[in-house]
Amino acid sequence: MHLYQGAEHRKFKRLHEKKRSQVNHHPTLPWEDLPTFIDELEQRPRRAARVLHLLILTATRTNDVRFARPGEFDLAARTWSTPGDRTKSGRPLRIPLCDRAVEIVRSALLKATYGYLFPGCEEGRPLSNMAMLTLLKRMARHGIAVHVFRSTFRDWFAECTDYPDSLAEEALADVVASQTVAAYRRRDQLERRRLMMEDWGRYGGEKREDTAMMAPAA
Fold first, then answer.
1. H/E run at residue 79
2. Looking at the predicted structure, is the pLDDT value of residue 44 above 70?
3. Does the model's pTM come out above 0.85?
4. Which domains, ranges and CATH numbers included, belong to the chain?
């Protein structure tokens, strides 16, 4: 009996290790390349480019931005309130909007239909979950998945800022495994996160700002 269990355990371990070795990790976009990428994104006129840009500026997940509703945005308060049934953690999340994010949302609100900020081509449906991936392929960013921009944000945060880790964790809205850590998350640190996301937005828009400064006066 023990020998059989030992053999089964070794077989399970080998299969598990084989499965782990076959995991394909999507390449990420290095944080150093973000301003150039955003500059390219700004030149794309289609809706998918605006959706992807808002996703990057808010460090949110694909479905968070795809299923965003117009009523979730308060542009006067510069916040986006995502309900708990659409977050991975199950908690409602208030997301601060930087200057460019406010611009994107304000423009999108003019064309919002079917109850979605970014409606799709099919009536009653949001933008397709393939739209941003197709956009990345057209931009010759082969192999990059939409969700990797959260990793880009996290790497920028670690390399370029002195903000406490709790701000990045709150911004990324990940599930907290530790009940002790979760107990300290009774406040969402919105205003502190607002400063961080403004810095993130300014960093990503550096090339855009440089171009504006170089433009001749009218």
1. strand 79-82
2. yes
3. no
4. 26-202 (1.10.443.10)
